[in-house]
Amino acid sequence: MHQNQTPERCGKAPRIRPAADFVEREDGFYLYLDMPGVSREALSVHVEDDELSIQGRSNHGLCNGERVHAMEFGDVEYHAQFALTDNMDTRHIGAQLANGVLSIYIPRREAQEPRRIRIEVI
Amino acid sequence: MDFGSFYDFPHLLDRMMGEVSQPYAAGGRQVAFPPLYIGESDGTVVVRALIPGARLEDVELTLTDKMLVLKGELKPVQGKYYRQERPTGPFQRVVRVNVPVSAEDVRATMKDGVLEVVLPKTSAVRPQAIRIESR
């Protein structure tokens, strides 16, 4: 395949949801999102109410005048939202970006002991 | 010379080489894993691959006479999965490079989950300006 024209994907950044893994371990929950080509500066992670939202834009520096022989990916806007549940400690969420994967750690919230209520007989 | 035949679109060759690629849905459509970009300028051929999660030791690159072979393996993480969309397992892509490249000058880098291989063409195939003299 050979293209002398500028490929269709050049300059466009469609909005997509990144591929995600959600895993539970003893110490809490882990969310992994594939976001190749996204730098730390082009990434934002927010927690508001009970929702975790993630945005990032890739910058692959493609279409810079090279003759393109194959183009199976282009730049994208990543968007993802996840609902946080009652058993998650939303105040201590941690995030790190490494090798094109955003890893988010959500500690488990300790379950509150059910309170025993004494019933008096009158 | 038919310059269009410099590179074969890799899918068919991958299948011939017994590829075990994983579908990659993040781009909205399924392609072989890892998805590739192949570009060419006057002096170089550039191959880029999206391999999020791969460390340097997870990827092996070999360049034979006419083929660049990219292979490796992505391992699943530990824990109880509730959702699994990221590709795992062995992968391989083969790019046929029909233009002579200087094998010892090939450079490969990984950044933000993107592998970039720059293959400089040998000087014999680089376009060179030829001065025309008048007589």
What does this structure look like?
The complex is a heterodimer of chains A (122) and B (135). Helix content of chain A is 0%, strand content 43%. Chain A is mainly β and 122 residues long. Chain A has one domain (7-107): Immunoglobulin-like (Sandwich), CATH 2.60.40.790. In chain A, strand 8 (94-98) and strand 9 (101-107) form a beta hairpin. With 135 residues, chain B is mainly β. Chain B folds into 2 domains: 1-31; 32-120, Immunoglobulin-like (Sandwich). Helices cover 5% and strands 37% of the residues of chain B. In chain B, the strands form 2 sheets. A 4-stranded antiparallel sheet of chain B has the order 1-2-8-7, with no helix packed on it. In chain B, strand 3 and strand 4 form a beta hairpin. Chains A and B meet through strand 2, strand 3 and strand 6 of A and strand 1, strand 2 and strand 5 of B.
Essential attributes:
heterodimer, A: mainly beta, 4-stranded mixed β-sheet, 4-stranded antiparallel β-sheet, B: mainly beta, Immunoglobulin-like, 2 domains, 3-stranded antiparallel β-sheet, disordered N terminus
What's the main sheet of chain B like? Answer: 4 strands, antiparallel
Oligomer: heterodimer
Question: Which blocks of ≥5 consecutive residues of chain B have pLDDT under 50?
Answer: 1-28
Order of helices and strands of chain A: EEEEEEEEE
The CATH class name of the largest domain in chain B reads Mainly Beta
CATH topology title of the largest domain in chain B: Immunoglobulin-like
Query: How are the strands of the biggest sheet of chain A laid out side by side?
Result: 1-7-5-4
Q: What's the architecture of the largest domain in chain B in CATH terms?
A: Sandwich
As laid out across the biggest beta sheet of chain B, the strand order is: 1-2-8-7
Biggest β-sheet description of chain A = 4 strands, mixed
Percentage of residues assigned to helices of chain B: under 10%
| Basic shape of chain B | elongated
CATH fold-level assignment of chain A: Immunoglobulin-like
Structural class of chain A: mainly beta
Number of helices of chain B: 1
Instruction: Give the overall form of chain A.
Output: rod-shaped
Largest interface: A-B, 37 and 44 residues
The helix content of chain A is under 10%
Low-confidence stretches of chain A: none
CATH class of chain A: Mainly Beta
The beta-strand count of chain A equals: 9
